[in-house]
Design goal:
The structure is a single chain. This protein has 215 residues and is an alpha/beta fold. It has helices at 2-19, 87-100, 121-130, 145-155, 195-213; strands at 27-28, 35-36, 55-57, 63-65, 73-79, 107-113, 138-141, 176-180, 186-191. The chain has one domain: Glutaredoxin, CATH 3.40.30. Helix 2 (87-100) runs parallel beside helix 5.
Length: 215
Amino acid sequence: MRSRALCSALLAVLAGCGSGGSAGLPYYADASLEPRWYARAVDLPATLHRTGDFALADQTGRRITAADLDGRIHVAQFFFSACGDVCPLVHRQLGKVAAAYHGEPRVVLVSFSVGGAMDSTTTLARFGAAHDVDPSRWHLLSGARADIARLARDSYLVGLGRGADYARDSVAHTEMLVLVDGERHVRGVYNGTLALDAEQLIADIRTLIAERTRP
């Protein structure tokens, strides 16, 4: 599962290189993660994929909805607090992203827990405190496993592997990170265990900020 996801991300990067970069970041319309470029915002098809609605509690107990992210760039992750395989690597790279945009209100990180009942608000609050997660900028969200899996697949276009794809006592999750613009369009997918991908994600967020501020 990890190798397939990594191949998709690499293909997207290679396709981006071939585009000449004249239209900025690509858009992703489905789980094939085939990048598509549009020269102008007016060229976007009305049916272009957008992430869907959700309403979940974060580590402070605050109710966070998809509408709270509208107009802001966000990075989505799917993890669980007790994960001891790829999640620590991903959190290390996400920490770099958070540090790069510290104090930037237009950028927020959202980590969806696939842990279900074992990742309660209290558990996620404890996890966030242990990992220096700023709750005003980085939301750790919990919900029913089936709902989170559906959100990953249908909204963020990344499937969750089997727990056995990672470690013996693991549950289904993914190391992929998803970049979403302020209009809910998926604009990038990255392997969160790789420093190179984290650096690219940081650069791509900068591109999206510039895209939003262009006249």
